Amino acid sequence: MKIIRTNKNATVVGAGPAGLTASIILKKAGYDVDLYEQNDNVGLRFNGDFQGLENWSDEEDTLDIFKNIGLEINFLCQPYSGDDGIFFGPNRKSVKVKTSRPLFYLIERGSNENSLDRGLLKQAEAVGVNIHWGEKLDIVKDSPTIIGSGPKAADAIAKGMVFKTTHKDFFIGFLDNKIAPKAYAYLLVNNGKATFATCMFDDFKNEKLYYRRALARLDSVVNIDKIEPKEFGGFVNFFSEPKYSKDNGVLYVGENAGFQDALWGFGIKYAMLSGYYAAQSIIAEEDYKELCKKNLVPKLQTSLANRLLFANFTNFGYSFILSRLGKLPDVIVPLRKHYNPSTAKRIFYKIAKRTYKSRLIDKQCMHIDCDCVWCRHGKSEHREVAANC
Question: What is the pTM of this model?
């Protein structure tokens, strides 16, 4: 049944990158936009930590993509190329890669002035989006509605620290299952601040062990001072197939809908673009699912196929991959190839789709007084779960 709208009002739930992007695009198109955020600020999931905005999966530069859809770059967005960092494999040999353009853009997350979250908020405020802080929308309004309320479970986790440092701007990537099972660890340094974290796609219950090992590995390869260190944790959620909408016309965007990179967790661009396509589907009265299937889903499916392959490479495979990448004249082109569909990746995706199921309710953690960085339950809920086990 088609829902007929007679006004130009729109409702967005969640002031994350996807929800803010959708709000900005809709408001610029002449809609009165009400944005509901249950917290009293943006970016409260984060701790001022640095993340990477990948710049290899599309032929077009990521910043040009954002500018072309109507977004400004009014937040910290520092380009890092192969010359700006180094990689270490399980054998602890250093590898430098060559890039013809920035490999990624370093961004900051959280509520700080230069963060991505704060930058998008400023853009939403500038165009006149009506933001309702501290309000949780429980009833769907009689207007097009977009929901981007963030991840609901931990399919991969990160444990790390943010700190001040006198070290120069720099990055390090680590591949080793002993410090980051089926994932990676990283150091990002920019303008006297740094983020170090290890990511895990497996064995979450031993997060502290892997974190200690990762810190020891960091200290063994670089001399970096850590001033005022603060630990943090986080998680990402990905689906084998995105969740697009409900019969009542509600559209889902961002990580809440499964728009996440299943290989590395570089999903910010996908989340923001999902917000853009949701807004465009309302503005142009197009099918949101079809827009996503054309522009986003092929890469998401390829990332799940890549996750399956990477998870089975083992440490020997990681060393081989880094060795090959270090010999290439430009890693951007092969990375783009592996992030886009092919016959082989479609076959692996079908296998991966049967293999990976999102942890909508993660049953690994049963601690009564839980301090897991990845657990989505509160302590009182843990007591209830433990009592019923």
Answer: 0.90
